[in-house]
Specification:
Blueprint: H1 6-15, H2 19-28, H3 30-39, H4 47-61, H5 63-66, H6 70-76, H7 82-95, H8 104-113, H9 120-136, H10 141-148, E1 157-158, E2 161-162, H11 164-181, H12 188-197, H13 204-217
Antiparallel strand pairs: 1-2
Helix pairs in contact: 2-3, 2-4, 3-4, 4-7, 6-7, 7-9, 9-11, 11-13, 12-13
């Protein structure tokens, strides 16, 4: 990649069908990785979605490679394009595992404010990755859990209208998240109370999750 013009990278992103190959290449080639990151600031075509996906997959595989670009990825967190925003949420959570400079603490409030985003999918993406942050920073567990427990009272919107259904879906994601770290939580009674309330959800899928959660975690608490 060294010495190539940006168009070469764009052509590569368009032509490569197996993203795993590009992830492996970006892992080995810092110049390529930097070029992919920089592409996001100027690209307007759908290639930018391929670029963010490569960064997300690499952050899952080798977060140390992506960590130097933490600040750039923070800027994507409020991107006007939701797909880029959602990838940023996932990537930043992945980077917590290697956050030796505690950069996440600088964006902590901003990150979890997205639980109140009108789009349920944005909140669900935060919920679905919150356990990674707790795993990296166990001292944050109580505070993060308190923020997550606010979700049942948050109004999400669908086509501009308040959507109780979206809130039910978010609560289903919350059960999955709590299942990841319940044994380590300092707020087990509060989590169980939330799970109990989900037994009367209007969504059958959420009820099934709640039943399974209670079966796995209620004994001995």
């Amino acid at each position: 990649m060294e010495g190539h013009e940006p168009i070469d990278l764009k052509q590569l992103l368009m032509m490569t069908e197996d993203l795993d190959d590009l992830v492996l290449e970006a892992e080995k080639n810092p110049i390529m990785l930097k070029a992919i990151i920089e592409l996001l600031s100027s690209e307007t075509s759908s290639i930018k979605f391929t670029a963010t996906k490569i960064i997300r997959l690499l952050s899952e595989r080798t977060p140390k490679c992506v960590y130097p670009y933490f600040d750039e990825i923070v800027s994507w967190m409020h991107h006007t394009n939701s797909f880029i925003k959602w990838d940023a949420i996932r990537i930043l959570a992945n980077l917590c595992a290697v956050d030796v400079d505690q950069k996440f603490m600088m964006i902590y409030d901003d990150y979890f404010s997205l639980l109140h985003d009108q789009k349920m999918i944005t909140a669900a993406t935060v919920i679905g990755n919150a356990w990674k942050i707790i795993e990296a920073w166990p001292a944050l567990e109580r505070e993060v859990t308190c923020k997550l427990l606010e979700v049942p009272n948050i109004t999400y919107f669908d086509k501009g209208e308040p959507s109780p259904e979206c809130n039910c879906i978010a609560c289903g994601h919350l059960l999955d998240c709590f299942d990841r770290y319940f044994d380590q939580s300092k707020l087990q009674p509060q989590i169980l109370s939330f799970a109990t309330n989900q037994l009367t959800s209007s969504r059958k899928a959420v009820i099934k999750k709640a039943e399974r959660f209670m079966k796995n975690h209620s004994a001995g608490v």
